[in-house]
Amino acid sequence: MNQKIEQIKEEIKCFHMKTYNDLETFRIKFLGKKKGIVTILFKELKKISIHKRRIYGKIINELKKEAQNKIKVFQSKNKIQNDKILKFDPTLPGKSIEIGSRHPLSILKNRIRDLLINIGFTYVDGPEIEDDWHNFTALNIPIFHPSRDMQDTFFLCKNPDILLRTHTSSVQIRYMKKHNPPFRVLSIGKVYRNESISSRSNFMFHQAEGFYIDKKVSFYDLKQTIHYLITSLFEKVKIRFRPSYFPFTEPSAEVDIYCNNGWLEIMGCGMIDPQVLENVNIDSEIYSGFAFGLGIERIALIIYQMKDIRIYFDNDIRFLKQFKSEF
């Protein structure tokens, strides 16, 4: 009988309910009034001696309690699940999924990319973490040259100098090293400079840079490209070119547009300095080219008529909801 009781005890212990019917089958099998295993064991006590009857009676009672506790545990779990089901009201309206919108900077970035791809430019990307040669030296900005003060940035380590790029012109160097002219290339991405944060400036901004290299490229080609880009973005607007200085272009110019009763600088440009071409093994006697760069945040301020550049990075849903993908 001891062996039989151990088997019953092990069977009760190993029981797991998958459905409610399984629990009912378990109850009838062990605790049924007529043919339940525990019930039959109690009836068989009459056939043994009084001394053994007390011992086995206690053991069978423990079996009965184990079976009852097992049923209570699974009934409790089933009740919790049923309560969850009852709390769900299928007649209530569902929760709407909030549809997002493109960030204004992404909208403008895509617009600039599409405009320049339409006239033959190829879009490429490059790393935000750069070395000194690609970011400065190859672009005619040697160590200790005063022009480096214009692009003070964040250095990640020294010897070798690894830094956060100050302009997307580093992409220009990387591309020219690996490809032979002619080519028209556009790159857009984040750049970093050690500047104070204000309504008009930030330590990080997005810059779009385009460059074109071929035989007999002239300043006229540069002006035509910039006129096309600006008039496509702003429609009817006055444009002027002012002589300026950039280490990697010669001659160089700032481009202004007439806005709100005054001239506003929006981009820089120029003919690529022959030394820059020589630095990447392009023969400057055969090829020439131009480059231009503009800050997307500043352009977006004008187009969307906003006054503070910092609002782009607040992640305010109320602000972002105002913009649609269409330009």
List keywords for this structure.
single chain; 327 residues; alpha+beta; BirA Bifunctional Protein, domain 2; 2 domains; seven-stranded mixed beta sheet; three-stranded antiparallel beta sheet; elongated
Structural summary, described in words:
There is one protein chain. Helix content is 40%, strand content 22%. The protein is of the alpha+beta class and 327 residues long. The protein folds into two domains: 2-87; 104-320, BirA Bifunctional Protein, domain 2. Strand 7 and strand 8 form a beta hairpin. Helix 2 packs antiparallel against helix 4 (50-87) and helix 5 (104-117) packs across helix 10. The longest helix is centred in the N-terminal third of the chain and has 38 residues, at 50-87. It is elongated, with a radius of gyration of 39 Å. It starts with a helix and ends in a 7-residue tail after the last helix. The model has no long low-confidence stretch (mean pLDDT 84).
Strand content: 15-25%
**Uncertain spans:** none
Q: What percentage of residues falls in helices of 4 or more residues?
A: 40-55%
Q: How many strands, which pairing sense, and closed or not: the largest β-sheet?
A: 7 strands, mixed
CATH superfamily of the largest domain: Bira Bifunctional Protein, Domain 2
Give me the strand/helix succession. Answer: HHHHHEEHEEHEEHEEEHEHH
